[in-house]
Amino acid sequence: MTWSEMRPLLSQASWDTLYMVGWSTVIAVVVGLPLGVLLVLTDRGGLLRNLLANKVIGQVVNVARSMPFIILMVALMSFTRWVTGTTIGREAAIVPLAIGAIPFYARLVEMSVREVDGGLVEAVQSMGGSTWKTVRSVLVPEALPSLISGATTTVIALIGYSAMAGTVGAGGLGDIAIRYGYQRFESGIMWITVAILAVVISLLQFAGDFAARSLHRRGAGSGRLLLFRPLGRPRTVPAAAGPAGVPAPAEAPAVTDAVHKG
Amino acid sequence: MPGTPAHSTATETHVITTSGLTKVYHPHGSRGGAPGTRTPQEIVALDGVDLHVREGEVYGVIGQSGAGKSSLIRCVNLLERPTSGTVTVDGRDLTALAGRGARAGRELRRARSRIGMVFQHFNLLSSRTVQANVELPLEILGLSGKERSRKALELLDLVGLGDRAKAYPAQLSGGQKQRVGIARALAGDPKVLLSDEATSALDPDTTRSILRLLRDLNQQLGLTVLLITHEMDVVKSVCDSAALMERGRIVESGTVSELLATPGSRLAGALFPVGGRATGEDRTVVDVTFHGDAATRPVISELARTYNIDISILGAAMDTVAGRQVGRMRIELPGRYEDNVVPVGFLREQGLGVDVVGVADDAPAAGAQTSPLVKEGAK
């Protein structure tokens, strides 16, 4: 198989993968985020404490997560037909992909939101903030770096799932690798697909990490920021701004020197 | 500015009142059993607390950890629902507003927005700038964007952080963070400020500056401050009144001078610790407590002149506030107690509190039974 034969195949497959993964990620985040937040809010000690609802949502999430994707795809066929009108093609693959990813992301959201300091929730409560205000101003913004990391993990997992979407004729890079690489022994195209996937996943991971880290580092005077400090405008001396008026450390040695000389 | 503050803004109106406040925790979330019966696992955090905080005063609740201070302050704005009893803040019965559900209704939330609260660990949002943190309660109150930023900058100026509005909390020192916390607590123009161990995570210098700020706000804005702490120094430096909590109960309470006037008050002993022992056999050791209106004259030198006796001062914890002496002093008079009945009577006549330290009781400290608090206060 020559490169000119491969190129249209690969570009179509890449586009298909992007399309399926992109849409299912959007759906997973839009549905998984509130679900994950609800899991925290309804739990013991949560603002909307409702153990029954918590158990029900938790159980649904568990069942959906324990389902192998290929089975989920088959099991959801009638639902898929109801939603998209068909059970084959890219659109049909998006439905099971999204449904598989929703509970996955919901659990990641739950973990991230649980990490948010309870004191912050208490602070907003003490100001008279509503539950919705607490979610919007505290839980989501404070968990944001971790929510972004979770979304990155979800996208990458979805790229893995999407390899199976070929079974419903949805195409994609994984499908190319299976049909050409495995079934026709075209190892060249298989390695190229693998390489493309590796590059895509690395790029996604890098972008996700970068976004999460730059949000996380907001204002944190970490050592890494120090590296860039000489390039920016000079920062004010913290001691001068401090109310405690921490004395300059240079004073102490000067005093001891004087004592020694005296 | 230790001792009884001079320009107390306190009035006689009670702005925070709790009556019969009880909080029982059910571990493992169990709520079984008929009311009134208590299973052994239950923890009684508050056991019938009656608290009366007057308008414009700084009221300190002191106690060791586990005494129920935290539960008490959280019950005042109903962050924790009391098991029984009522909480009235600024004339409104919050326990009635709360309703029965676990969620805070609109009424309770509105009442809360008029009660400021500062926290030990500041509880600032790391995702927001200092200014945006102060704007958060203003968002809840529904102010417009322009109003919010005007008010937030004004509050930051008030706490001395006008130049740090654009910084993130992670760039601030502990003291600065607490100043932001205070600015945020003041955003709703509260009448009452609750301070939950606000200085416990700070070093002594910063603690002092934060306490000074609280005192200034109390005087400038007529703000009532209810603070809980485990540090006697905090009570000593800012409080008009204090209460001692132990095992969910208030065991002593009153204004600082009332406490001093109470014989055997543990809080007074801890606030003004005196030590020193008799220098010889034939000596009388007397603890003199200065409080109230009587303590305006140089009583000790009058005593010496009137009875022509030599007086040694063994230990003293005194302050002069607005020309009045406040505190305690341990003095030694020559001769046995029987010889000193008249001078001791003279001291009593001056309106001073007089405790003769027993001959048998020549222990170094004022009272061994108050040891943890005394140690705290003596630092």
Task: Provide a quick synopsis of the model.
Chain A is mostly helical and 262 residues long.
Plain-language structure description:
The complex is a heterodimer of chains A (262) and B (379). Chain A is built from twelve helices and no strands. Chain A is mainly α. Chain A has one domain: MetI-like fold (Orthogonal Bundle), CATH 1.10.3720.10. The C terminus of chain A is likely disordered. Chain B folds into two domains: 248 residues, 3-Layer(aba) Sandwich (Rossmann fold), CATH 3.40.50.300; 88 residues, Alpha-Beta Plaits. With 379 residues, chain B is an alpha/beta fold. Chain B has a six-stranded mixed beta sheet with strand order 6-7-8-3-9-10, with helices on both faces. Chain B contains 13 helices and 14 strands. In chain B, α4 crosses α5, α5 packs across α6 and α6 packs parallel to α7. Helix content of chain B is 32%, strand content 26%. The relative contact order of chain B is 0.13. At the A-B interface, α6 and α7 of A face α3, β6, α4, α6 and α7 of B.
Write the layout of secondary structure elements.
The complex is a heterodimer of chains A (262) and B (379).
Chain A: H1 3-41, H2 51-66, H3 69-75, H4 77-84, H5 90-114, H6 118-126, H7 131-162, H8 173-183, H9 187-216, H10 223-228, H11 238-241, H12 251-261
Chain B: E1 14-25, E2 43-54, E3 58-62, H1 69-76, E4 84-89, E5 92-93, H2 94-98, H3 106-112, E6 115-119, H4 130-141, H5 145-158, H6 174-185, E7 192-196, H7 204-221, E8 224-229, H8 232-238, E9 241-246, E10 249-255, H9 256-261, H10 266-271, E11 283-290, H11 299-307, E12 312-321, E13 324-334, H12 341-349, E14 353-357, H13 371-378
Parallel strand pairs in B: 3-8, 3-9, 6-7, 7-8
Antiparallel strand pairs in B: 1-2, 1-4, 4-5, 9-10, 11-13, 11-14, 12-13
